[in-house]
Write a structure and sequence with these properties.
By secondary structure, the protein is of the alpha/beta class. Helix content is 21%, strand content 33%. The longest helix is centred in the first third of the chain and has 11 residues.
């Protein structure tokens, strides 16, 4: 467990949809001796399920429960008021899965600091929820440090669950809890669908989204490597004559979140040689450094050659 700085209030967030098992999970946490060691703890409950907390079994007496009945109550003033009321030294939150994570982040008082955030998921309903409420599900999966699939059974495919999680979150720990008290950690490897050690790293059209995320998360591993990738080129618009932007629109989870995912490219007099908005297959060497268009360090494709190309079959790239 991380140690809080002076006056900083650590916050532990447990996320999940109704009847996912959050309350039982948190009850178990609060009954243990590892979590609460005498700290004054504020437990915020953002939805009411079938199960209720049993304070008599808590490992410490100074755990105070408050209910947040509606999303409108989720604001810095109210949360600070509750923090002061109980002189809370740490906060636990049972967060409503129907509320977006942004609502919680914006409601956090200044001294609150998230120390851990995890999601409890009912494995028996996960696929249905993911299909019918993809935007809400992705919003949660994307933010988590740990995802616990409870009520998991041997006839379920870990590969299917793993693939959905990894499309949203590449780093979260995944745990499978079986009804017989068996717990298994996810150890499925996630090899990239392209050879990063090849003389020329060929990025297929279907792999653009994965490659774009990977090069932005770990740009240094691409330093000095040659990449061949298809994208639309954006030139002009006050860019220097040797600088352009290339990329594709990427859909993360639903139509509403489609965004242009682009990188900086360089090529002498590209404004004269490349047509704005056209598709090209670009081959070039990656460097990593500061660029004013980014406003920070980032990957830059220094183009060696280019040729016009037909648009991909699916012009909007996805992670699936």
């Amino acid at each position: 467990m991380l140690k809080a700085k002076k006056k900083e209030i650590p916050v532990y967030v447990f996320v999940g949809f109704l009847e996912a098992g959050k309350t039982d999970f948190m009850q178990g946490v609060l009954e243990g001796n590892d979590f609460c060691r005498g700290e004054r703890t504020l437990l915020l409950v953002c939805e009411e399920g079938e199960n209720e907390y049993n304070p008599k079994k808590f490992s410490a007496p100074n755990i105070f429960i408050e209910t947040i009945g509606s999303e409108s109550e989720l604001n810095p003033e109210n949360l600070q008021k509750l923090t002061d009321k109980y002189m809370a030294e740490q906060v636990l939150v049972e967060y409503n899965g129907m509320w977006m994570m942004k609502s919680f982040y914006e409601a956090m008082p200044q001294k609150w600091m998230i120390y851990q955030i995890l999601m409890v998921v009912d494995a028996t309903t996960f696929m249905v929820y993911n299909k019918n409420m993809r935007n809400l599900m992705y919003d949660k999966l994307n933010a988590m440090e740990m995802i616990v699939f409870n009520r998991f059974t041997d006839d379920m495919s870990k590969d299917e669950f793993h693939k959905i999680v990894r499309a949203a979150n590449r780093s979260a720990d995944i745990i499978y809890e079986f009804g017989d008290d068996r717990i298994e950690l996810d150890d499925i490897e996630d090899p990239l669908p392209f050879d990063i050690n090849a003389d020329v790293i060929e990025i297929r059209d279907v792999d653009y989204a994965l490659w774009y995320r990977d090069i932005n998360e770990e740009p240094q591993k691409y330093e000095g490597k040659t990449v061949s990738v298809k994208g639309r080129c954006l030139v002009g618009n006050d860019l220097p004559s040797s600088v352009f932007i290339f990329g594709r629109h990427v859909m993360t989870c639903c139509v509403e979140d489609i965004q242009f995912a682009g990188l900086i490219g360089t090529y002498p007099e590209c404004e004269k040689k490349l047509k704005h908005g056209e598709w090209y297959k670009l081959t070039g060497r990656i460097s990593v450094g500061y660029h004013p268009v980014y406003g920070e360090e980032g990957p830059i494709l220094n183009v060696k050659e280019y040729k016009k190309a037909a648009p991909p079959v699916e012009e909007v790239a996805t992670f699936s």
